[in-house]
Amino acid sequence: MSQTILPASHLLSYGMLLGTAVYQTFVMTKVAYLALPTSAFTMLQKRVFPVYFRMQSLLIVATALTYPPTSVLALAQVPLDAGLLAFAGATALANLAKYGPATTAAMIARTHQETRDGKKHDDPSGVSEEMRLKKRAFSRNHAMSIHLNLLSGGVKRGCG
């Protein structure tokens, strides 16, 4: 790539990476949660997050490949930036391969338990022991996924 295209491409890929993380985490998920019934929200999340985690992983690769002034060759000369991008990649892959699917599975299991119990997971009258276990599994996986997502989006510094 030419010396003028590489920095612009790097800025675009990094900007998209940061922007999608902020939008997905703080806007889209919150709005969908408040606007949709639980079953529709669950279905939406089940479809959106795998795409988001794949896109996040690809944007981290694009950010590394477009590191100015000479792509990954220049990145290799800046161990801190290389390490931060590697860490971001590892957290994104952990979400893509483990915590994203585990969160989705736990959310679906919780929804099915609501059907079996005949009441919501946050019913004020209390929940069954099975629901308590499903809520705990969801909370653990979801918290890990959120933290990995924030780490992935927040660890990169100026990147060139």
UniProtKB/TrEMBL annotation:
Domain of life: Eukaryota
UniProt keywords, alphabetically: Membrane, Transmembrane, Transmembrane helix
Keyword Membrane: yes
InterPro entries: TMEM205-like, Xanthocillin_Biosynth-Assoc
UniProt-annotated stretches for the region Disordered: 112-131
Domain TMEM205-like: 12-111
Keyword Transport assigned: no
Location within or outside the cell: Membrane
Any one GO CC term of the record: membrane
Transmembrane segments: 12-36, 57-76
Entries under PANTHER family matching the protein: LATE EMBRYOGENESIS ABUNDANT PLANTS LEA-RELATED, LD23009P
Protein name in UniProt: TMEM205-like domain-containing protein
